[in-house]
Each structure stands twice: as structure tokens, then as C-alpha cells.
Description:
By secondary structure, the chain is mostly helical.
Amino acid sequence: MALPNIFSQDVTNQIILRINALTPSTTPQWGTMSAAQMLSHCNVSYEMVYDDIHPKPSSFVKFILKLLVKGKVVGQKPYSKNSSTAPQFLIKGDREFEVEKERLVSYLKMTEAAGAAKFEGKESHSFGALTSTEWNNMLYKHLDHHLTQFGV
Length: 152
């Protein structure tokens, strides 16, 4: 069964409603991140799409990531609780809840406006060219995992 379409307005609006249900004091059902850290963590995926602020892995590391990690990240199977994460996704220190929330909502709207066609064959930071379905799975699944983690 296909995951909800992150490129559709309805799904984007549903995710934004879930994000808007968060407060700075919302606590996770598992894990140790604060709500602000989680939003910042989710922003990293979009920073890799829209901003040039994260170093790209070497060819060898990219090969290993494609071989060992890509299927788990872009597939439909949900992430398990307390899954390991890449170093650039580790958020240390405090973050400003409203700033991170606004950034995430803005990225969601940019992605929806761009549409699936813009993501077809688009290069991933770590996995090379992905189909729009793989992009959808990766982006939706990650958000859903963390919003569920925070009970929204």
C-alpha cells in the first residue's frame, strides 16, 4: 500500500495540522529529543534538498549508504522506535520551537508547490537519483515517524 502523497495539498495540510498540534512542552513517547529539537531534526531532510549547508558524503560512503541504508529510508516500511540516525541529523542543544516549526511548514509548502515531477530523478544528498515515489516515502515516513513519536 502506498504511503500518503507528500506532494498533495491535502497531505501537506494534514501534516501541518499535526505540526500545529505540537507545543514547546510536548513530550515524546520514546526518545530524548525535545519538540523543538525534533522539528529541527526533521528540517535536516529539507535542508539537504533546498539548502547547501551539509557536506556531501564521499563517493565511497555514498556507495555504502546506497547499498545498506537506502532501501530502509526510501521504502514503505515504517521506521522502528529509537532507530539510529546519521550524524548530521543529531540535534544537540536547544532550538527555538517557533523558528523550527515555521521552517518546517515552509519546507512542506515548497515541496508541495514543486510537485512530484520536480523530484523525479532528483539527486539525493546520500543516495543519488531517486524517483518521486522514493522521495515521497523518505519525506513522508520521516515526518510521520516523529510526529507519531510526539503523539500528534
